[in-house]
Design a protein that fits this description.
Blueprint: E1 2-8, H1 19-33, E2 40-43, E3 48-51, H2 57-64, E4 70-79, H3 84-95, E5 102-109, H4 118-132, E6 137-138, E7 145-151, E8 156-159, E9 163-167, E10 176-180, H5 186-196, E11 200-207, H6 214-231, E12 233-240, H7 242-251, H8 257-275, E13 280-282, H9 295-302, E14 309-310, H10 318-327, H11 331-334, H12 356-363, H13 368-377, E15 380-385
Parallel strand pairs: 5-6, 5-7, 10-11, 10-13, 11-12, 13-14
Antiparallel strand pairs: 1-3, 1-4, 2-3, 4-8, 4-9, 7-8, 12-15
Amino acid sequence: MEKLILIKYGELSTKKANINLFLKQLKDNVSYALQAKHVAIKFDKGRMFISFKEDNFREVVEELRHVFGIHEFEIAYKLTNKDAEDIATSVLNLVKSKEFNTFKVITKRSDKNFPFTSMDFSKKIGGVLLKNIPNIRVDVHNPELLVHVELRMDAVYIYFNSEVGIGGYPVGVAGKGMLMLSGGIDSPVAGYMAIKRGVKLECMYFESPPHTSIEAKNKVIALAQKLALYNNEIKLHVIKFTDIQTTIYQNCPHEYLITIMRRMMYRIAERVARMNNCKIVVNGESIGQVASQTLTSMNVINEVVRIPVIRPVACFDKLEIIDIAKKIDTYETSILPFEDCCTIFVPEHPVINPTFESAREYEKLFDYEDLLYKAIKNHEVIKISAKEKHEEFKDLL
């Protein structure tokens, strides 16, 4: 018997004419995740199979836990001999090494030439187990051990209790997006949820030295690397926002500082997104959480861009967002006490219901186009891989 990993697709199996596009992307993503593990990958429209070396099994499993598009995966045993008695004997030999009191057999038969129906073959396997293993019984509702037998055209696959994958779509099938990544809790969660729907992310961070520290920047790099576990790799665009932010502070009424600042950020995000073939901008805005995230504020800020802005956590409350942040291991990094440019120069009473007319008039008080051009032209790009450690933020991880 050959030992391998069997992957089930879940949501991907609902795709029709374009399913091959999704499966090819999933195969490429699995290959990237396992590139150093010396594996062989085969797939069809029903399953994906990974052959691996026994000594790197745990590492392979850990990598698969971060690959979107996988509904379930399990250790399977492949038999090329499709004789019913030989299959039953192989199942018995595998089951003998397991500890359990109750079990259930589930047979799937895609090979209709096999001389048993699925139900009849499950009964046959169950009978062999009951006859040869003492003190066990069948429980069809809540068994301790599930015995799966898949009778496929090429071979027979035997496996047991499954491990749940993270689901979603393979990264890349939906195109690219630009995530506005701050050092807070919300934007990494928003990024994770966009990746789950097949969006391959690039990230953008706004820094305002000397008002923001190198620790704040390194914190964002650390968050980007955690997202890279799911995204394969991430290109982080670092925009120096100091001149823009200072000019806004010097020329605009302070209650409108956040509104005008966000409009400038949106303009930059759209332009850099288009330069990098990103179809959307993604951010972590949550309705009503702060002054710039009221519906009126969002509407006024969104006016300056023509690219879709996706807000995956818009309708989540803070506790729901924190739960996801803890699940994806970004929470402890996000709460490190280093301020980003969104938390400096915050007015005591920011406007919560800005108007289009006021925002436009205040922007006429300074030449922002030249400032935006310089910020984009001189911005820094950092390439981040989940496979590499960056010296500048190793102490944060």
